[in-house]
Amino acid sequence: MTMETWEKVGVITSVVCAIPVVWTGVSWLRRKKPIAEAIQRPIDSPALKAVEKPIDSHALQTPVTTTRKTVPISPMEIVSKIEGVPDLQKADLFANNYKGLHVEWTGRLSSASKDGWSDGKLVNINLICPYEGDWTTPHALVQGSVPLSDYPELKLAHAGTRVTISGDIYSHNTLSIGLNNCHIAVSLRATNSATPA
User: Fold this and answer.
1) What are phi and psi of 129, to 5 degrees?
2) Tell me, what's the pLDDT at 40?
3) DSSP-based three-state secondary structure for 17
């Protein structure tokens, strides 16, 4: 057989083998809804709303450079205003006025621990804010998580170390405020003393 003949045999074999595949595809498409109907899905469909939902950044945080404006409010101002209203009004006051605000606060490191849910990739930190004053000064506990790989200096930080944290307010509990999307700056010059340097 010549090369031309083998080419013709190859083409015929390919066409014969492709017919069952094409037939199966056509049969499957006939059982499905027309494509035009699927394309004309309304914009407010539940499928699109599910895609638009924000990802829970508390689950696994990665450093994000942000240009959001920092709101000049202290953690004690937030805590005192929320604690000053009746219990049934606290959640609404927090959600309507403080949740989502971008803040930056400086405090003393109270504790740092590896997050068990992230296989140690995140470090949960607790700060006593404000940094100024001694342990008897009224204060709030500020909580957040950061990737240990981005802040290896946390491995050298002792309780009482000065830490500046920025992030978005996402939770409130009696005398504590939780932040997400956190960034920190650790000042290793501070000592473990109760009075800041």
Assistant:
1) -120, 140
2) 44
3) helix
Q: Which of 149, 188, 151 is nearest to 166 (CA)?
A: 151
- Which pair of structure tokens corresponds to residue 19? 């017919």
Please tell me the least confidently modeled range out of 91-95, 128-132, 141-145, 147-151. 128-132
Closest CA to 107 of 14, 7, 190: 190
User: How far apart are alpha carbons 40 and 29 in whole angstroms?
Assistant: 18
**How far is 149 from 129, CA to CA, in rounded Å?**
25
pTM of the model: 0.60
Cα–Cα distance between 134 and 138 in angstroms, integer? 9
Going 111 to 68 to 79 to 191, the CA torsion angle's sign is positive
| Cβ atoms of 186 and 157 closer than 8 Å | yes
141: which strand partners?
Answer: 128, 176
Q: List the one residue out of 156, 153, 166 whose CA is nearest residue 73.
A: 166
Q: Which amino acid is at 128?
A: I
* Encoded amino acid at 11, one letter: V
CA–CA separation, 65 and 130 (whole Å): 25
Q: Strands, DSSP E only, in the chain?
A: 102-114, 122-129, 140-147, 162-173, 176-187
Could you tell me which CATH number the domain at 75-187 has?
Answer: 2.40.50.140
Listed by start position, the domains of the chain span 1-53, 75-187
